[in-house]
């Protein structure tokens, strides 16, 4: 059974940093690209970032480019999102999703940026 | 960026009746490999999104056959043949043809009338 478990979400002050993790199981992790997608409270889905199966290629939404860094450790079946210079508008539930076509999603981890 | 426009944004439906959601893209979603990367997701209240349909019309495993996807180019539709109580939630279309960025529609909230 595919499982994606996000963690690391907390309350952080504007300008702060945070690292989210996504632990994957139930599939061959290094066969798949992985995404981060976020959902602000009461809002729709916003794609954040994509990383290729080997970590060699990464892509970002303009809203996070230069502030967020996606990475993965295939030896640990884990996906990460390093978030720097956080802003109030980054407040959201952050999901990791499997594969280029988003076939499985985690339950999300909540990031709140507030003073 | 490709803009995905869904309609309606709110969809009250009587149990047992059909429902239809439209999704239009600002440019054709046909990729150079001939595939059209248009997916549909369901998000039930308090849950994570779940993929229902991939590449326009392919139903995911475990998805009831009352759900169907159709369309081509820039116009796509998700249909539910007979709405059940468990279908309540928000439905999103998503394009994965022209990226970055990958883009989602605004979401359509389905409720029981």
Radius of gyration of chain A: 13 Å
Number of DSSP strands of chain A?
11
What share of residues are in beta strands of chain B?
over 45%
Biggest pleated sheet of chain B: 7 strands, mixed
Helix and strand succession of chain A?
EEEEEEEEEEE
Mean pLDDT of chain B: 98
Helix percentage range of chain B: under 10%
Low-confidence stretches of chain A: none
Explain this structure.
The complex is a heterodimer of chains A (115) and B (113). In chain A, 0% of the residues lie in helices and 50% in strands. Chain A contains no helices and eleven strands. Chain A has strands spanning 3-7, 11-12, 18-25, 34-39, 45-51, 58-60, 68-73, 78-83, 92-98, 104-105, 109-113. Chain A is globular and about 40 Å long. The termini of chain A are far apart. Helix content of chain B is 0%, strand content 48%.
Summarize the structure.
By secondary structure, chain A is mainly β. In chain A, 0% of the residues lie in helices and 50% in strands. Chain B has no helices and eleven strands.
Q: Could you name the key traits of this structure?
A:
heterodimer; A: 115 residues; mainly beta; seven-stranded mixed sheet; four-stranded antiparallel sheet; globular; B: 113 residues
